[in-house]
Amino acid sequence: MTYLLGVDTGGTYTDAVIIDEAQDRVLASAKALTSRPDLAIGVGAAIDAALADADVDGAEIAMVSLSTTLATNALVEGQGGRIAFFAIGFGEAELTRAGLTDALRGDPVIRLSGGHNHAGAEVVALDLAALKEALHSLDAGITGFAVAASFATRNPAHEVAVRDVIRAATAKPVSCSHELSQALGGPKRALTAVLNARLIGMLDRLITACEDHLKSVGISARLMVVRGDGALVSADLAREKPIETILSGPAASIAGASWLTGETDALISDIGGTTTDVCLLREGRPKIDPQGARVGPFRTMVEAVAMRTTGLGGDSEVHVVEGLTGGLRLGPRRLMPISLAAHQYPDLIHSTLDRGLAQDIPVSDGGQFVIPLWTVMPVGLDAREQLVADRLAQGPLRLGHAVQSRMESPALGRLVGRGLAILAGVTPSDAAHALGLVDAWDGPAAEKALTLFARRRTGAGTRVAENGQVLARQIVDQLTAQTVDCLLQAGFAEDDRAWSDPEALAKHPLTMAGLDRHRGIVQVQMSLGVPVIGLGASAATYYGAVGARLGTRMVLPEHGGVANAIGAVVGQVRMHATGAVTSAGEGSFKVHLPEGPQTFASRDEALAVLEAALRAEAEGLVRASGVEDVRFAVARDVSEITVENRAMFIEATIRVEASGRPRIAHTS
């Protein structure tokens, strides 16, 4: 027998599924709460429950694959470790492009002299003395480093030299931009390196937690990780390049959706605790985003499925819209649902909510709580952060007790942003508990929190809702409306007509009238032309109304709640290597290789040398991930112009993709 184990770690749940490969069916699936800060607890609970349900011994597992939305969620919510960014040869203006300023969030930036030109020649000598001086001035709270140099894809020598000095001095992870993308565009490449450095610690903890538990239950099979384009990579490579796992969970869910439903053309909508991810499935395959993965406000150079990710999930924060008319808005920040917080801290949550309900006026902190997520007091905090952290050292507190002045609110925000604490408050999950749609955690606590929230006032001075039950229905209706908006935006964006401004069209009055099936002097009807596959643990709770609103077939597959974990083990390993040949003039063809440029007199020889080097690089990567039967695909893009009836070479790019199924150790 050959059994495969898929694991998916999301913001709220960790899922595990066991597939019988010979019979092509799901044997068992299980869920456990994602545990922070110790991810091993949730990972272990999900794996153990799936093994027990399937009655499968750990030694019988032939392959394990992991997908996750943790990296995606971190970028959407602005979380991750504190990093230092070394910018080599960039001007001040370049460092403000591509969202770099927002991505850095005030972390230190050290500009160094250096860099190369388009041909790979050194422009300015690298200032290593300034580098060493800067390293001594950085504080202990730095968790990793990002390095980007001008035209490093043409010659990475300066990035490599800086990386080696940093590693020798700090022993901390370093992300070089040329190792993440071979495309030109320095600021965007630098952004990708910054985000990668910020995510390294988070993904390393997850992979280590998974590996440790696999070993403890006797599973010796290779651990793979799902990349953002749906391909599998080795756990070691994922540790080095965690940025490539953004949209890992959604990419796995697409593969799982196709495997579960057999649908070939559909919109896939995957709702998690933090995000809703929408992708178009055409002829059984997702489209790859040619501009690089976009998550939250950031456009990276990471190849990934063309996914529209929105900060909308079952655990999204509920906001009251400012103004006289009021109304609700969900997300993008994830909160711990009150029902879950009360499940974990019943005495604190219930007693605090009861005191709030005894008053007739809304509580000043909105009935929210702050829950610390560290086991050892973090280092590198400023004075106000330390003050808030000291109060939280003994455990969760009401928001109004954790933060006691306006000056401390930004400090708490930074602790939350670094993943050291989380706010608990009213979410759609609480509304679902109060309405009896789900019964996973503490429903009575959810009802109390909703009642308190309903007492808030709009700009007109009226209550947000008559009572908690009415508010719960409003929250669920708002989730439906925002999900419909996500799907309409995706529909307009992917439609063959190439509509302009999909976001505005999704909200246009004619679109709304069409969804309402308006029948007046003018009759308007609007619907999606493809079915929607609803995935995620809460899809069955919310998505029936979404399908009805959009006038389309809603497919809610069995095991759709663990589609990510299923997709994690049905994919293939795919690795690519890309390189360029440039020309400084007739008879001079420069091949840009990782070890530096090499010049050849023949165009064909230069292209052949580059292709051979790229084949070897891509093959080495897939073989390191356990592939024995390697398949290659080569794409050449040669730019030439004709001058006086002669072809003049400008530049060529070669991309080599190696792929195959990872070796599976069959058991008897």
Question: Could you explain how this protein is built, in words?
Answer:
By secondary structure, the chain is of the alpha/beta class. Helix content is 37%, strand content 24%. The strands form 7 sheets. It has a 6-stranded mixed sheet, with helices on both faces.
List the topology elements.
Layout (H helix, E strand, L loop, with lengths): L2 E7 L3 E8 L4 E9 L5 H16 L6 E8 L1 H8 L5 E6 L11 H5 L4 E4 L15 H10 L6 E6 L7 H14 L3 E3 L9 H31 L6 E4 L5 E3 H6 L7 H14 L4 E6 L4 E7 L2 E2 L7 E2 L2 E2 L8 E3 L5 E5 L7 E7 L1 E2 H7 L1 H12 L11 E4 L10 H10 L4 E2 H4 L6 H9 L3 E5 L2 H7 L8 H12 L13 H27 L7 H6 L1 H7 L16 E4 L3 H12 L3 E2 L7 H6 L4 E13 L2 E6 L2 E5 L2 H22 L6 E13 L2 E15 L8
Parallel strand pairs: 1-4, 4-9, 5-6, 5-7, 7-8, 11-23, 19-22, 23-24
Antiparallel strand pairs: 1-2, 2-3, 9-10, 11-12, 12-13, 12-16, 14-15, 17-18, 20-21, 20-22, 25-26, 25-29, 26-27, 28-29
Helix pairs in contact: 1-6, 2-6, 4-5, 9-10, 10-15, 11-13, 14-15, 14-16, 15-16, 16-19
Q: Ranges with pLDDT <50 over ≥5 residues?
A: none
Reported for the largest beta sheet, the result is:
6 strands, mixed
Overall residue-averaged pLDDT value: 90
Alpha carbon gyration radius:
26 Å
Distance between the termini: 5 Å
Helix content percent band: 25-40%
Q: What general form does the structure show?
A: globular
Total beta strands: 29
Percent range for β-strand residues = 15-25%
Structural class by sheet pairing and helices: alpha/beta
Arrangement of strands in the largest sheet: 3-2-1-4-9-10
H/I helix tally: 21
